[in-house]
Specification:
Blueprint lengths: L1 H12 L7 H11 L4 H9 L4 H29 L25 H15 L3 E2 L5 E3 H4 L19 E3 L5 E3 L4 H10 L4 E10 L11 E11 L4 H16 L5 E8 L2 E10 L16 E10 L1 H6 L8 E8 H9 L12 H4 L7
Parallel strand pairs: 1-5
Antiparallel strand pairs: 2-4, 3-4, 5-6, 6-10, 7-8, 8-9, 9-10
Bound molecules: 3,4-dihydroxyphenylalanine (DAH).
The site of 3,4-dihydroxyphenylalanine (DAH) has 11 residues, from strand 9 and strand 10.
Length: 340
């Protein structure tokens, strides 16, 4: 047994580590579960009891020595691998197919980022909506044409009507019902209208609604907010103009045009030689709407606006056919790869 210990001791002392791979060989040979030192411990069981202590100590010392040698060798050799790959590591890697963001997602994100900068939060509501949130609370009279079958996809007619929302203004109502001013929020989402599909109309599209309610909010705040938005999205030279209009839920109401980004207002077929492009509807929230949602219209005032995401995308990316957005044609979608 003593001889055996000495023999292994000598082997250890004479061991030469040449390369990093030798450290693993060494570990297996001496310290592994079938290694020589493990073997000595097995033999120890057969040693008479009065010698066990001394021999045991010798084996322990041998084990410590081997462990120490291994540590030292690793410290010295790691990072000096002499391993040579048979592959050509300079070869360019195989290309992974990359997807791209949908143009509507890109534009929605850009618009949200603009309003986040000026403190707007994001809120969402359901696409299947009741009459109250889509129409009644927004001051639509019962005979209003927008409620007509021609515009709205109804899910349940008659009492407690349920329909696919026709605009994201419904989310305004939900936000006001659940929060007291100050309210500053934008609501992106998909909306549905019963229209024949063509290059200029679709049965579903996307809107972003804005709502700002507080004490003393004025039309000037609305105008400045929209100018900031237009210049962030279309560039610092963009101008806006407001034309009087009508919406049941705002009073006064306006439609907003932005100076034509395509011809720089010189006149082209996109702006129909007017130099202006319509981008959104807006106005001061009608006091009836505030009251319907539990907000004191004597104390608070506010503005709202709603824009079509497809429309802004059309102007940014010069896409003239609305159908492209939902056809999933890779030849179209792949063109947005470089737009982060
Ligand atoms: N909901 C309108 C639409 O779908 C857009 C709109 C106009 C929203 C004026 C507003 C607003 O908040 O004030 O055509």
């Amino acid at each position: 047994m003593i001889e055996q210990i000495q023999k292994i001791g000598n082997e250890l002392s004479g061991y030469e580590f040449k390369a990093v791979e030798d450290t693993e060989k060494f570990r297996i040979q001496f310290l592994g579960s079938k290694g020589q030192i493990k073997g000595l411990y097995t033999m120890l069981r057969e040693v008479p009891n009065d010698q066990k202590k001394e021999i045991g100590q010798q084996i322990n010392a041998l084990k410590l020595k081997a462990e120490h040698m291994l540590d030292e060798a690793k410290k010295k050799l790691i990072g000096t691998s002499t391993y040579q790959s048979k592959e050509d590591l300079t070869r360019p890697a195989a290309k992974l197919p990359l997807g791209s963001h949908h143009p509507l997602s890109i534009v929605r994100r850009d618009i949200i980022d603009v309003f986040k900068k000026i403190g707007f939060s994001i809120s969402e509501g359901p696409e299947i909506e009741d009459d109250w949130h889509n129409f009644s609370a927004l001051n639509f009279p019962p005979e209003h044409p927008a409620r007509d079958m021609q515009d709205t996809f109804f899910i349940k007619k008659g009492e407690n009507e349920i329909a696919l929302r026709t605009h994201t203004s419904s989310v305004q109502v939900r936000v006001m019902e659940n929060n007291q001013p100050p309210i500053r929020t934008i609501s992106p989402g998909r909306v549905y209208r019963n229209e024949a599909i063509s290059a200029r109309a679709h049965c579903f599209f996307h809107q972003i609604e804005g709502l700002y309610i507080d004490e003393g909010v004025s039309f000037a705040d609305l105008k400045q907010t929209l100018l900031f938005f237009a210049q962030e999205v279309f560039g610092s030279s963009a101008k806006i103009r407001l034309r009087p209009s009508y919406f049941p839920f705002t009073e006064p109401s306006a439609e907003v045009d932005v100076s034509c980004t395509i011809c720089k207002s010189k006149g082209c077929n996109v702006c129909k030689y007017s130099g202006w492009l319509e981008i959104l509807g807006c106005g001061m929230v009608d006091p009836n709407v505030l009251e319907a949602s539990g907000i004191d219209s004597k104390k608070y005032s506010g503005f709202a606006f709603g824009m079509g995401v497809e429309r802004i995308a059309q102007l940014k990316f010069k896409v003239n056919d609305l159908r492209m957005y939902s056809e999933n044609d890779l030849r179209f979608l792949e063109q947005f790869k470089s737009t982060l």
